[in-house]
Amino acid sequence: MTRGTWTRRIAMTAVATAAAWALAVPAGAQAATATGTSTSTVAAAAAAEDVDYATWQTDCQAVMNEALPYLKQRIAAAKPGEKQAIVFDIDNTTLETDFGFSYPQPANKPVLDVATYAQEHGVSLFFVTARPGIISGVTDYNLKHVGYKVSGLYVRGFLDLFKDVAAYKTAQRVTIENKGYTIIANVGNSATDLSGGHAEKTYKLPDYDGQLS
């Protein structure tokens, strides 16, 4: 991750933490292991000082254009009683983390469109992130505010901060499977989001040599 990305991420955390305090005050505030994993990627653009938003959106759309036909077929082929799920990363996957500091953060539209199709067809959406637990509440609100139906949100507790991120995320997918779900897809923009198995297919969004990890 570049210094610029770290700066944006720290600013995002500060904004989200401030929002957490704001939301806490008002009384009316929002109170089957898979076999065979196939990773889908888009050719990464050469690293640049700043990632171009339009290019990022085009590249994300290309990945989701590949994912949607598979998901339509897999959802239609659900076995009787099968509980299907998709696992998503958050930063620069489901939300536009590094393209502004507003709160709530906008949805990454190509991913939201696919998620909307899935949730409208009975698929549960789970979100596994390396974000710290202190901003769990505002993250949950943000996801729901922009249109995601959150069946589960997994954030890092204090002890998780000392664990390997890939191992932490794999463990959360195992937890989801242990609840009886079949993870038909796992979507993220970093290798740590997708390694470790426990998903039938993986789809990698661009991170441009770590600039958007």
TrEMBL record:
InterPro entries: Acid_phosphat_B-like, HAD-like_sf, HAD_sf, TAT_signal. Keywords: Signal. Residues 1-31 form the signal peptide. It comes from the Bacteria. Transmembrane segments: none annotated. This is Hydrolase. It comes from Streptomyces phaeofaciens.
